[in-house]
Each structure stands twice: as C-alpha cells, then as structure tokens.
Amino acid sequence: MAKVKNAGVQQILLHPDKETKAILEYLCQQSGKLYNNGLYFARQMLFKTGKILYGKFDLIYEPSVSKSMVAQSIPSTPMQQTLMSVAEAFKSFKGLRDLYFKGELHFKPRPPNYLKGSKLFKVTYPNSGGQKPVLIDGSLKFSLGLTVRRWFGVSEFYLPMPSNIELSTVKEFTILPKNGGFYLEMSYEIKKQKHDLDIRRALSIDLGTADNLAACVDNLGNSFLIDARAMKAMNQLWNKKVSTRKEGKSEGYWDKWLDRVTRSSHHQMRDGINKAAKIVIRHCLKYQIGTLVVGWNEGFKDSANLGRIENQKFVQMPLGKLKERLKQLCSLHDIRFVETEEAYTSQASFLDGDSLPKYGEKPDGWKASGKRIYRGLYRSSNGSIVNADLNASANILRKVARNLGLDLGLLGRRCLTTAARVRLWLNPMPSLSAESQSL
User: Fold this and answer.
1) Which pairs with CB-CB distance under 8 Å and at least 24 residues apart come from 34-37?
2) Residues 315-373 pLDDT 10s
3) Tens of pLDDT along 186-230?
4) Could you tell me which residues are beta bridge partners of residue 371?
5) What residues does the Probable transposase IS891/IS1136/IS1341 domain cover (predicted)?
6) How far apart are CA 246 and CA 140, in angstroms?
7) In whole angstroms, how far apart are CA 248 and each of 111, 164, 245, 253, 257?
8) Beta strands 198-207; 212-218: pairing state
9) I want to staple 290 with a disulfide (CB 3.0 to 4.6 A). Which of 64, 69, 127, 197 is the partner?
10) Residue 287 neighbours by CB under 8 Å, 6+ apart
C-alpha cells in the first residue's frame, strides 16, 4: 500500500449501475477471500513456527498464496495490495506484542482475525504501474486483468473522478465496501504548510469528557470547550432507530434500511471530527502555538464506568479518530504533536499543584487536594470552583511541562472558570485550508 507522508484522503459514495455494482461486489468478495487465505497462512506460520510474516512482500513471494486460484481471480496489482494489508496487520500485531513484552501494554494482543459478516474487503489500485486507472472524459477506467476477461468477457469498469482533485496528485484509489454501499477513496499528496510558530507555546486537550468532545487549555491563558452534545444526540438517535428496527427480529438481523441509517450516522460523525480538529488547529495558528499535547490512555476510554446510559454515549464517541485527525493536521502545519498518559489528571487539583503520578504508580497515601462536586465542576482546597474538564486539561499540560520546557505562569483560575463553548454545527466556520475535507 502506498505510503504518503502528508496525505489528504477524500471519499465519495458511489451510485453504480447494476453491471458496475456486480463488478464491485465480485472484486471485494474475491479480495476478502484472498485476505482470509493470506491470514490463514500467516496465522499457521505463527502458531507452528513462531515466525511473524510482517515483511511487505512475504506473502506475495509465497506461491501457495499468491499463485492460488483466488489470487488469480482478481487483477495482479490489487491482489498484491490485499496481501500487503495482511502483512501490515501482522506488523501492527508485532509492534503491540513487543510493547506487551516490555511491560508497556496492559493487555496481551491477539493475532489478526479473519473477516466476518459479508467478508467484503477493500480493493486498491495504486496510481502507478501497468494497471493504474486512466482518466477518460471525466471517468476513471479500471482494468480487471486477463483472468476476469477470459472468465466473464469484461476487461474494465468506470467510476466517476471528482473534479476538485488533480489525477497526477493521487497516490492510490481504493474501493471500500461499507454499510451496504461502495466508496471510492483517493489518497493524494499535500504540501506541508509553513507557519511562524513557537514550540514553547502549547495547547493541551482532554478528550471525551462529559458533555464536551474536547476541553482545551493553552499556556497563554486561553481556554475553550468543543461541545459534544449534538454528536451524542446523533448517537442516541442512531441507537434508537437500530433497536426499534431490530425489535422482534433475529439476533443477526440487518437490512438495507439499517445500512442507510448507519451510513448517515457515520457521515455525521466524520463531519464532526473534521470540524473539531480544524477548530483546534485554527486556534493554534491564530496564537502561533507550536505544540499540541493530547492526553490519552490506551483502553481507558473504553473501560470507563459512567453508568449504562452515559457509557453508551461516552464509548461510542470516535475519540481515536479525532486524535489521529489532529496528528495528521499537526504534521501538515508543522505543529509538534505530543501524546501523554492522563492518569489522575481529573482527580488532581491544578490550582493546588497536586503531584501527578503515572498510571499504576500512585504512591501510598496519595490524595487529591480538591474533588469533583458535580458532573462538570471541581472544587480546590481553598474553595475555588473551576470547570472540571479544563482542570484535567491543565493537568495534562503540567505533566509534560518540564520535559518540553513550557512556562505555565499565565495559567490560572480565570481560564479554568470561564471558557467559550464551541458548537460544531450551530455556527458554520470557514475551512482552515485547502487540504482534504475528509478523514
């Protein structure tokens, strides 16, 4: 799979005719079968010999996989990309396993598992080589290879090319089967943008708080909250629609109506994530902030126990996608991205300067000077009332201040008490830059 250092990604929902849809279903079905075949071989190699096949071409050079009938049933270039995806999955598994053996991961990772459900898998065409797509009258022509031509008498198919992207900048095209539909995803190169930024100016983010998608505090004395209530309401509405539709049906029931509702929900979540990330980056550029600090504990958000109703809203927020989108935009705008663990940042009092132990290293007798008194408020030892989420965000910044050489002298009670609340859909904001509008 092509790697692009600074990449924009745009997806378009396809509306293919009957013949093109049949071709897309065939390609994704065969790609899914090939992925499972490659996964089976790699898993057996791991279980029987202990060897992890994570090299880019390990499975491509394995004749029992790459020369199989399934592998020959799709064009050679997408076939190789599918097998590379298996190798990438095992490479990620190896990285997690190494962290586990070093004691830096609290759970034991499992080897990649087989595709379930429809078993459809993505089909990727790099924009290079003999089978790269060709632009003809505003449409992209994709080759199906000699085997498909001999079997079915079809040699190519066509998909629309968006007018806002230059073909020469696209690195790869990917056909994605999702929620009963097909998307065309284009990865294209973006030039890094240069700004006059100061890395000693930092913004910290506490993700996924009660009614906020992000609580943000910088060391210049500014703060703001990105509202999450609209996104949570969308989640609740989607859950209600799905549960109502499936009421009285079998456990695995699913239909086209549920696919449409799920697609709509995913589009809304994606739009919200992009808007939130751009709000954060716009603030950094406005105040020449060169460092972005994000508090994150692996698995911490998933294991939060906030009660049945709150857990439903809390865990389903796409916080990982927001973090990754922030990382992408930081790379694009040359902002230093720092990820740190956030243990005890919600319990400790920033105004009282409580110590901040690392996760699992809390000293005996450690006790916070203040405490949360309501869902969104925190009371310090002298009775000062501040926003609990902003208090946590300020503590996240304090965790890395010494190592990053940050001055927190301007951070005080005012910015932890009064903060602007930004609503993602109430007031449309101008786009930050010309990079991709999609994740």
Assistant:
1) 34/68, 34/70, 34/71, 34/74, 34/79, 34/82, 34/83, 34/121, 35/82, 35/85, 35/86, 35/115, 35/121, 36/114, 36/115, 36/119, 37/65, 37/68, 37/70, 37/71
2) 467 899 999 999 999 999 999 999 998 888 989 999 988 888 887 778 787 888 888 88
3) 999 888 888 999 999 999 999 986 689 999 999 999 999 999 989
4) 379
5) 187-295
6) 39
7) 36, 46, 9, 10, 16
8) antiparallel
9) 197
10) 201, 218, 220, 222
- What's the rounded Cα separation, in Å, for the pair 388 and 347? 9
Is 164 within 8 Å of 183 (Cβ atoms)?
A: no
Given a contact cutoff of 8 angstroms between Cβ atoms, the answer to whether 388 and 376 are in contact is yes
pLDDT, the chain, mean: 88
Q: Which residue has the tokens 């994709």?
A: 142
**Residues in CB range of 433: below 8 A, 6 or more apart:** 193, 332, 333
Residue 113 C-beta-side C-alpha neighbours within 13 Å: 4
85 CA to centre of own chain = 17
What Å distances lie between residue 296 and 181, 204, 389, 396, 423, CA to CA? Answer: 33, 11, 14, 10, 23
Rounded Cα–Cα distance for residues 387 and 351 (Å) = 12
Tokens of 183: 């998307």
Q: Is the pLDDT of residue 4 over 50?
A: no
Q: What are phi and psi of 199, to 5 degrees?
A: -70, -15
Q: Are strands 420-422 and 223-227 parallel, antiparallel or unpaired?
A: parallel
Indicate the length of the chain as a whole number: 439
- pLDDT band at residue 5 using 50, 70 and 90 as cut-offs: low
Joined together, the tokens standing for residue 195 give 């700004």
Give the other-Cβ count within 10 Å of 388's Cβ. 24
- Asked whether the beta carbons of 172 and 9 are under 8 A apart, the reply is no
Say if residues 342 and 296 touch (Cβ distance below 8 Å): yes
